[in-house]
Each structure stands twice: as structure tokens, then as C-alpha cells.
Design goal:
Helix 3 (110-119) packs across helix 4. The protein is globular, with a radius of gyration of 20 Å. The chain has helices spanning 48-55, 82-90, 110-119, 126-139, 156-167, 186-203, 214-220, 238-243, 248-255; strands at residues 6-15, 22-32, 37-41, 63-72, 75-76, 93-96, 174-178, 206-210, 223-228, 231-237, 304-307, 310-312. The strands form 2 sheets. It has an 8-stranded mixed sheet with strand order 6-7-8-3-9-10-12-11, sandwiched between helices. The protein has 319 residues and is α/β, with parallel strands linked by helices. The protein binds iron/sulfur cluster. Iron/sulfur cluster (SF4) binds at residues 247-248, 283, 285-286, 289, 291-293, 296, 301, 314-316. Iron/sulfur cluster is lined by residues 247-248, 283, 285-286, 289, 291-293, 296, 301, 314-316.
């Protein structure tokens, strides 16, 4: 079995408040293999973005890492100095934050922004860097002329592609993309998904794709982590999670995907996620779970392996 490129164990990222810590990410385990596209799904506020930032140590106060480990290859990310971490994030690890297409410099041509990113870490002649920038733009499906354009001249989809080109400029081994298709129409979303898949295919780059949109995951990811209220509900191949979801929350999510083959009523999920300042002592999904048992109120379900590559945190499956 191939060693994971990224291994996260018992990662906890909290937000400091006067009333106590908000446990936004509370004991997450995951592993991403080389060349894998790994999806993280869950409703808004479940901790997906906090998890992404915590994995790369990008959290800002009042967020803080309360414990756990993150290994990237042989590197312990939690032990790195700020300078070493900055070099790693600029080279082997790339992060595409939410709404990053709005963070492009409005007064700089797109190609120059890519060249700037390369020049901060590597030295080539100006001509070489411009050629490299043009190849990068081409690799994410942008025409040559887009390099000479300013961000306001690009559509939303083109801006997102430009952001991806900047992120992959230094040939990262892992790209963490937080909601890269949000605020884009369905056709443009598909183009972005294909651009990410192309990067994996051509460069062998691993990708962690964070999205609340299950249709996006269905199209591109290999393995999917379903997160609920700061914890892992289930991890498995995207096929298993859609065809045979085990956790009651995954079942609700899968049932909410519209089908073009059959007409059926789509049921929502009643209630709200728990307050993470005072999460329920047992299963965090218990107040909304259609299959809850009395024990679920008091016993926290561990994440157990139910089949190779398939893990679920639910007392229906032992634990
Ligand atoms: Fe539902 Fe209990 Fe499973 Fe939680 S542990 S998901 S409450 S059945």
C-alpha cells in the first residue's frame, strides 16, 4: 500500500471565546494518497474550511490548534518553523482559499501575477517566466490573450482558472481548494472541475477539494469525507458513499441529490447543527438523526473501519 502524502490524526482546531472554546474541528483523522482527489463535504458551518486552514497551519486568532498531528510526506507540519512552513506552502503545498478569485490584484495583468508568484520562489529569466506563465494558463484552459488581461476583463470562471494557474505555478504535490466552484454557474463549475481533474492527470498532483456541493464531488473525487459538526461522520470511496451511505447523515445527503432517472420527493433535514460551544455529550448528530437510539445521547461514536477504506462514526455499526 502506498504511503499517504498527507496524514492527519486527531486534529482539533478551536475558536477562543469568552464563554469557552468553540470546537469547530474536533478530532479529525484523514489520509490523502499521492495522485488522489480527496473530497470533504458537509453543510455550511460544519468545519470544512477550518479543517483546511488547520491542516496547513493557516488559522488566524481567535482560531487555534488545540491538538493533533499533520504529516506531509516525512514533514511534521505542526513542528515546522514559520519560515519553513512558508516555503512549503509556496512550493509543494498550495492553498486556494474561498473566494480567492476576488483576491486577484486588480491593477496587475494576469500573466504578471503568475510571474510574481514564481519569482518569489525560483529564479528564471523574464522570458522563461513569461513562457512558463503562458503554459500554465494554457494548462487550465485559458487562451493566450488572457495573460495580458486585467482581472476585471475576465469572467468569474476565467478568474478562478487564473487562480488555479497561480496555485500550480510551482508544481505542488498537493493543492487544497476550498469551495473553488462556489458562485459560478453550473456550466462554469463543470469547466473548473475538469481543469482540476486535468491537473491531477497531467501533473499527478493530489487535490483536497472542499465543497458543500455533492454533485461536484460525484464528478471528480476518489474518496470522500463527510463532516458533521466538526467531526468525521464517514469516509469512503465516492462510489460507496453515494451508492450505499452508512451514516444516517450521509444517507440524508445522498437522498437529497436530485435524480434525472426517477421523480422523487427530496426530503430536507429538520433542525439545526449543535452549538459547538456546548456540543451534545454523545453523538453530535443525535438531535437530528432519524435512527437515533437512547445510547446515542450519552455515548460518542468512535470512527471505526467497517471495510477496507471505509470508516464510519455511528453506533449502529458497533463501537
Ligand atoms: Fe444516529 Fe446514533 Fe448513529 Fe449518531 S450514533 S448517527 S444518533 S444512530
Amino acid at each position: 500500500m502506498t504511503a499517504p502524502l498527507l496524514k492527519v490524526e486527531d486534529l482539533r482546531a478551536y475558536y477562543r471565546t469568552r464563554r469557552g472554546p468553540i470546537k469547530a474541528v474536533d478530532g479529525v483523522d484523514l489520509a490523502v494518497s499521492p495522485g488522489e482527489i480527496f473530497g470533504i463535504a458537509g453543510e455550511s458551518g460544519c468545519g470544512k474550511s477550518t479543517l483546511a486552514k488547520a491542516m496547513l497551519r493557516l488559522q488566524k486568532p481567535p482560531a487555534y490548534i488545540a491538538g493533533g498531528s499533520v504529516r506531509f510526506g516525512d514533514t511534521d507540519i505542526m513542528e515546522l518553523s514559520e519560515e519553513a512552513l512558508r516555503r512549503l506552502r509556496g512550493g509543494s503545498l498550495a492553498y486556494i482559499p474561498q473566494s480567492s478569485m476576488n483576491a486577484l490584484n486588480p491593477v496587475m495583468r494576469v500573466r504578471d501575477q503568475i510571474v510574481d508568484g514564481i519569482a518569489a520562489h525560483e529564479s528564471f529569466s523574464g522570458e522563461e517566466m513569461r513562457e512558463r506563465a503562458d503554459r500554465l494558463l494554457d494548462s487550465v484552459g485559458l487562451p493566450d490573450r488572457s495573460g495580458r488581461m486585467y482581472p476585471h476583463e475576465l469572467s468569474g470562471g476565467m478568474k478562478q482558472r487564473a487562480v488555479i494557474a497561480i496555485a500550480i505555478a510551482l508544481g505542488p504535490k498537493l493543492v487544497v481548494a476550498d469551495e473553488p466552484t462556489t458562485a459560478l454557474d453550473v456550466v462554469t463549475q463543470r469547466g473548473i472541475v475538469q481543469a482540476l481533474a486535468g491537473i491531477k492527470d497531467r501533473l499527478g498532483t493530489s487535490i483536497i477539494l472542499i465543497s458543500h456541493d455533492l454533485a461536484v464531488h460525484a464528478e471528480i473525487v476518489d474518496n470522500l469525507l463527510v463532516m458533521y459538526a466538526g467531526k468525521v461522520a464517514e469516509i469512503g470511496s465516492v462510489y460507496d458513499l453515494f451508492e450505499d451511505p452508512l451514516h444516517p447523515y450521509s444517507q440524508v445527503l445522498a437522498a437529497a441529490i436530485p435524480s434525472i432517472e426517477e421523480r422523487r420527493e427530496i426530503k430536507g433535514l429538520a433542525g439545526q447543527p449543535p452549538n459547538l460551544l456546548t456540543p451534545p455529550p454523545g453523538c453530535r448528530f443525535e438531535p437530528r438523526c432519524p435512527k437515533a437510539m437512547p445510547i446515542c445521547k450519552t455515548k460518542e461514536p468512535p470512527l471505526i473501519e467497517v471495510a477496507p477504506g471505509r470508516r464510519v462514526a455511528c453506533l449502529l455499526y458497533g463501537g
